[in-house]
């Protein structure tokens, strides 16, 4: 850990030791020139920070230095991680990058304006000792013609509350593209169907184009899918996107408040033989439940913890790259 603060108090150090030991037991280790660990995490309102080791009830935001050390300890277990809900104020993100150290880098979008955009950014953080940029970045734009071909015209106005953001990376001899999403949320799930259909169709066309930059495409982020097998799930996956079985298992929970929610996903396309459209070999996947470790010695409610760490668990997938 890069030292950017005064020495942490003993309760922080004790908690970090517990967290690190739990991560050791649940997340695959990084193996030089062997594996790649890709993750996605919606970190709730990841913006400002109270620079105290222990925030109190009167502090706003609740997220404090202890929280940031826990968040950084989790992030550093992965090679590249897509983060949703980064806010206009990036104080917490800047501190996280300093803690991670000089061998970590990031790619960050500008703020999405408007009420539905919620003042959010998309971010990728990556360990440059194992992953580097490979030259491509874009925001997904769906042509009007596609929207008019079987998709409601209303989607043209509502589908990109937060525009999907894609970046290409290289690890070992493998080039891959990550597309991160944070789908519009609404009480009526039908509000999200046009957005999901438009995005899935666009991604499927890209993945099937042999002249595209690269066909190693992985989609990840907060899809705001309510439950396994619901209409949104079927709508998105009908274009050929595949979620690995480990992330479909009930043990791969997404929400700290409701284990039935299926919000976050990591998915990729398969061909007509149901073989992955990836040159990287999938190894394993899961989610990381930090409830019993991060800040566990602070006696916090789940609601308070959600503002200090997150209301989502991170999802991860491991691939063999060499």
Automatic annotation (TrEMBL):
One of its GO terms (molecular function) is endonuclease activity. Keywords: Endonuclease, Hydrolase, Nuclease. Residues 39-227 form the Endonuclease/exonuclease/phosphatase domain. The keyword Zinc does not apply. Gene3D superfamilies: Endonuclease/exonuclease/phosphatase (3.60.10.10). The keyword Nuclease applies. PANTHER family: DEOXYRIBONUCLEASE, EXTRACELLULAR NUCLEASE. This is Endonuclease/exonuclease/phosphatase family protein. It comes from Autumnicola musiva.
């Amino acid at each position: 850990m890069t030292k950017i603060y005064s020495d942490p108090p003993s309760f922080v150090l004790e908690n970090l030791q517990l967290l690190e030991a739990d991560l050791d037991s649940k997340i695959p280790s990084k193996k030089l020139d062997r594996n790649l660990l890709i993750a996605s995490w919606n970190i709730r309102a990841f913006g400002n920070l109270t620079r105290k080791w222990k925030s109190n009830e009167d502090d706003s935001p609740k997220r404090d230095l202890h929280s940031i050390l826990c968040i950084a300890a989790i992030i550093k277990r992965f090679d590249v991680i897509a983060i949703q809900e980064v806010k206009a104020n990036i104080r917490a993100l800047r501190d996280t990058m300093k803690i991670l150290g000089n061998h970590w880098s990031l790619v960050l979008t500008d703020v999405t304006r408007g009420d539905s955009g919620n003042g959010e950014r998309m971010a990728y953080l990556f360990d440059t000792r194992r992953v580097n940029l490979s030259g491509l970045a874009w925001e997904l734009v769906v042509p009007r013609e596609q929207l008019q071909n079987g998709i409601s015209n209303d989607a043209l106005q509502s589908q990109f509350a937060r525009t999907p953001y894609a970046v290409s990376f290289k690890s070992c001899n493998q080039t891959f593209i990550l597309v991160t999403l944070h789908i519009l949320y609404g009480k009526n799930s039908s509000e999200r169907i046009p957005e999901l259909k438009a995005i899935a169709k666009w991604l499927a066309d890209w993945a099937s184009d042999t002249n595209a930059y690269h066909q190693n495409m992985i989609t990840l982020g907060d899809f705001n899918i309510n439950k396994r097998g619901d209409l949104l799930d079927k709508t998105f996956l009908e274009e050929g996107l595949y979620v690995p079985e480990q992330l479909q298992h009930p043990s791969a929970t997404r929400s700290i408040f409701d284990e039935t929610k299926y919000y976050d996903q990591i998915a990729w396309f398969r061909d007509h033989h149901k073989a992955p459209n990836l040159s990287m070999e999938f190894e394993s996947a899961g989610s990381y439940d930090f409830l019993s470790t991060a800040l566990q010695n602070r006696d916090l409610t789940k609601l308070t913890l959600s503002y200090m760490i997150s209301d989502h668990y991170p999802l991860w997938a491991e691939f063999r790259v060499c």
